[in-house]
Write a structure and sequence with these properties.
The complex is a heterodimer of chains A (161) and B (421). By secondary structure, chain A is of the alpha/beta class. Helices cover 29% and strands 17% of the residues of chain A.
């Protein structure tokens, strides 16, 4: 089961997702130990593989261009982030790493912390099994989905080569 | 059809006569900026995917700056990987320790930025270079890797927003204050995915360095790039520095180009601003903010760590003492040397400041002045997010170097105008 971890905040920035004091390494497992540390010190203790972060708010991932933010989330085995909107560089980094994002404004009224959810990325359907609700969203653009399916931009380039 | 400067640069670099906002394009890159935090992982990724190559070793500029000099063993390992890669690929423009500086101050200063160029860098403040008429944007490590290997990158052509800077800046009010005002008005995502184009008489009056402070902070409004048309100030700055021919293209936005929105700022009405924790958009006028006690002042960074900044600060500190710990962090070795030669270091030393080697240092909470639990810092830097300069319960207040200097002297947020002649 994929549990939703709900945060109600705008502008959750990359300094909160992975603070710069941990940027002296690019080891994904090291970074994962500090994922979201300055936002929720308990996050790494409660997250389980496949869980989803649901942000009720806009501009997730603003600030520094550090891709370490995506790696920390991926290293913590988060399967996707749902938010009202995403900051530009974070959005690109996620696509380039093959990490799925879902743009869904007002997710707060239909998803509570701890709900069991599944996401159909291509179909644009988020199912909240706990509440028996289905929510639709606009899937990421085709070229982004293609990069995500190939496991990231560099695989995409290596394949074209 | 008419285009903005940003659209014209995109059109040229993807081989089209016309591009429209929203269009996805593959653009040819003229320059890639690399530093010690985001480049080592890019290098590793390329090796892992069997793509280990550099499209053009002359079009890559490398300077370690974030943890420069290395602050611990792990960061030293990053520097070692970066150094080995530069040597292996014969990177022409490599600035190792001694030459290294804060990237966004160093690249323009050393003549790497040409108007009309298409530039990416593995750092969000790469948008700085737009003040010299180039398209320039920050990317993550994978984009950086893709750019390094292929010399091109995918982009979505951004919509443009126009900011008209009217009037004349009052004494004691600087480009930093103008930018904090713009971010206060539109918010930290007000320009998300967009190009921020700056025009107007108050811009004309600004030096090339002052303009860099503005485009530097385009990212703090969520912008993809900041851009300014080339004028005589740009030419004077660029022509003195760039190598090779000075025959760079100069693009201007067409009179009937499309802007998603236009904002008019009356600069004559501005006063010094301080952005309160924890967003750059939390600007308050110094008249409302003055008096709040600070623990530290930090004057440096890619936003405001240039020679003009230190001249202003030195003029204010001359014959005075600072009341709180104050860090002076010149952004590049050239700035450092100039400040020393001009006697500014004597003033800083006598005032009780500490002078650091060029580094990004504590701006991002790396080292050289990180904050303890509950401490407050007045800073000439660009971000005041939770934990940005240290402890998650520390606080950063963003302002111009002048406001930071006045606050250093008084030990509390203070109006710089009383210390300026």
């Amino acid at each position: 089961m994929a549990k939703a971890h709900v945060y109600k905040r705008d502008h959750i920035n990359t300094d909160e997702i992975i603070p710069a004091r941990f940027l002296n390494t690019d080891d994904e497992q090291e970074l994962a130990k500090h994922c979201l540390e300055d936002l929720d010190a308990n996050f790494v203790k409660k997250v389980k593989p496949g869980d989803v972060i649901v942000v009720v708010g806009d501009d997730f991932g603003c600030g520094s261009s550090r891709e370490h933010a995506v790696w920390a989330l991926r290293g913590a085995k988060v399967s996707a982030v749902v938010a009202g909107s995403f900051a530009r560089i974070f959005y690109r980094n996620a696509i380039n790493c093959g990490f799925p994002l879902v743009e869904l404004p007002n997710a707060g009224k239909d998803i509570n912390d701890g709900d069991d959810i599944t996401i159909d990325l291509t179909g644009g359907i988020l199912t909240n099994k706990t509440q028996g609700k289905t929510l639709s969203f606009t899937p990421m653009p085709d070229f982004a989905m293609e990069i995500i399916r190939e496991g990231g931009l560099l695989n995409h380039i290596a394949k074209k080569k | 059809m008419s285009m903005t400067i940003t659209e014209k640069i995109f059109a040229v670099h993807c081989g089209k006569s016309q591009v429209k906002p929203g269009e996805l394009v593959n653009a040819r890159l003229d320059l890639i900026m690399c530093h010690d935090v985001t480049t080592p992982p890019a290098i590793s990724m390329l090796a892992e995917k069997g793509l280990e190559r550099v499209f053009d070793p002359e079009k890559v500029v490398v300077t370690p700056d974030h943890f420069q000099p290395p602050k611990d063993i792990k960061s030293a390992q990053l520097h070692k990987r970066l150094d080995a890669w530069c040597k292996k690929h014969k990177i022409k423009h490599y600035y190792p320790i001694g030459k290294a500086g804060v990237c966004h101050a160093l690249l323009p200063e050393q003549g790497h930025i040409r108007p009309g160029d298409m530039i990416i860098g593995g750092d969000s403040h790469t948008c700085t270079y737009g003040s010299l008429g180039a398209f320039s944007t920050g990317v993550g490590s994978t984009d950086l890797a893709a750019g390094l290997a292929t010399g091109e990158l995918w982009f979505r052509v951004p919509e443009s927003m126009k900011f008209v800077l009217n009037g004349k800046l009052p004494h004691g009010v600087y480009s930093k204050d103008v930018m904090l005002e713009i971010i206060r008005i539109i918010g930290t995502d007000g320009a998300r995915y967009k190009a921020m184009e700056f025009v107007g008489p108050a811009l004309k009056d600004m030096s090339a360095e002052a303009r860099m402070t503005m485009t530097n902070m385009a990212i703090e409004a969520g912008g993809k790039n900041g851009i300014m048309a080339v004028d005589e100030v740009t030419r004077a700055y660029v022509d003195k520095r760039i190598k090779g021919n000075k025959d760079y293209p100069v693009y201007t936005s067409d009179a009937d180009a499309t802007y998603e929105s236009t904002y008019e700022i009356d600069c004559a009405k501005l006063e010094p601003l301080v952005a309160f924790p924890h967003l750059p958009s939390n600007g308050k006028r110094i008249s409302e903010a003055a008096g709040l006690a600070m623990d530290q002042a930090y004057i440096g960074s890619c936003t405001n760590g240039r020679i003009e900044d230190y001249r202003i600060v030195a003029a204010m500190m001359k014959g005075r003492k600072v009341a709180i710990r104050t860090l002076i962090v010149p952004a590049t070795p050239t700035v450092w040397r100039q400040a020393m030669d001009e006697g500014l270091f004597d003033i800083f030393y006598d005032a009780g400041c500490v002078i650091s080697a060029p580094t990004c240092g504590a701006c991002l909470g790396g080292f050289m002045g990180v904050l303890a639990d509950g401490e407050k810092c007045i800073s000439s830097t660009n971000r005041n997010f939770v934990g940005r300069m240290g402890h998650p319960r520390s606080e950063v207040y963003l302002a111009s170097p002048a406001t930071a200097a006045a606050s250093a002297i008084e030990g509390k947020l203070a109006d710089p105008r009383k210390y300026l002649n």
